[in-house]
Amino acid sequence: MGPRSLMSEPGQQSLNVTVIHCRRGRVHTKEPCSAPSCTTPHTRFCDFPLRGRKAGRTCDAKLCDSHATCAAPGKHHCPPHAILTLKENAAK
Questions:
Q1: Domain residue extents for the chain
Q2: DSSP assignment letter at 48
């Protein structure tokens, strides 16, 4: 069987075309900030050290610039952990 014509009738094109759309990997979009009702893409994670059975790990809540509190150079806390840190430092 030879190649088929793309024309089904004179002046009309047939729509029997296969298109393959290939993307390498997945599209990386930044997820929004973890703060309630904030839709701003996150720029950092909460670095608050967890305690108890999760000791040795950090909170890692996604934070935008406006919801990140600088705890130390290069360390940021989410709003709940920033409040906890202030309370613990005031109690000392």
A1: 28-91
A2: P
